[in-house]
């Protein structure tokens, strides 16, 4: 793809009203048509001149803090004898759009799928992200990585066997709760494992003035829906569902998922202010705080919530996480694993060095930097451990004892089946916002504006559109 065309298309796409999000997507997260090969000559890296090479690294400034990237950049400089030009921004999508319009591209980018801007999805759609399959063809690297971590659509967004996105961090997800309510001397409830037990607990908690469930925002239901689809129909059904099989939502398994979700997000079981908070600026944290304050028992989340809510979490509070419940008679439980991604622009000047940097992200050096990460709350100045885990064998075992390690251990238990990836990318679909189409109805079902049958009809129509737009 010519740089001029990339500049034009990316600029147009990012100024459009296409708000794409969710973990993976048809027109929303793992988007659209395959990215082209770079067409660059491997020898063009500026190391040929004998000058010290400079790697331009652009990283999203988020919950993991800034120091983690400063430390990784410094370690790469020391190991490779190069310079790293580090750009960090909480509005990285906007900053990179401006740079691309001027013909300036970073060499490597840390910016996830599923962000509100849809920036990574847009870059994929326009063929502006390089195919990095060769990086993961390295036998030594393959031996270090967790089995299957590059098989999902968060690494292969087009499900075509080609890797465009490097999964550099991973996090098991599930239902988070106050562990003090379920174990110890102040135990009040038994932890449920089935949906039947879960809703029975909701009925009991209601008598205590406590809601069973809340969710930060509707998009946080993504991992829950993925795990429920796999739980209801098994891995084969899940793989068909994420590729828009026409019977997904009208099948017995699909209807079971939707009926259960509809009951879960109904006002009977979901905390009364959930929807209002979810749609208010910063209100997602109020919903999370409601679990800490025992106003709701469970919420879908990942271990980033520990650091995110550290400033308002009492010292004696203990987080717990469990998989979404299974149905009566199921022998195993399904847990969804969320990944964060790094990628190389197709127009990167230092392609070889960028690929070396991605390999470096799986080194022992980086594994240790990630595990020792800390974040500082801007309001209180309080520094808290915020370990990040690379998808490298043995990395999670190095975590200190505590909630985070418990989460990773839970994901590898004998009775747990893990799934990753998400909705397969499609060609652009005008007017479709996948996040709103799939997860948004949770709000409307809660308020009574939609029924579960309406949700089913909307999903069936969306799946038909997406199936017709597969490459």
From TrEMBL:
<protein>
    <submittedName>
        <fullName>Carbohydrate ABC transporter, carbohydrate-binding protein</fullName>
    </submittedName>
</protein>
<dbReference type="InterPro" id="IPR050490">
    <property type="entry name" value="Bact_solute-bd_prot1"/>
</dbReference>
<dbReference type="Pfam" id="PF01547">
    <property type="entry name" value="SBP_bac_1"/>
</dbReference>
<keyword id="KW-0732">Signal</keyword>
<feature type="region of interest" description="Disordered">
    <location>
        <begin position="27"/>
        <end position="53"/>
    </location>
</feature>
<dbReference type="InterPro" id="IPR006059">
    <property type="entry name" value="SBP"/>
</dbReference>
<dbReference type="InterPro" id="IPR022387">
    <property type="entry name" value="Bind_CPR0540"/>
</dbReference>
<feature type="signal peptide">
    <location>
        <begin position="1"/>
        <end position="24"/>
    </location>
</feature>
<feature type="compositionally biased region" description="Basic and acidic residues">
    <location>
        <begin position="28"/>
        <end position="53"/>
    </location>
</feature>
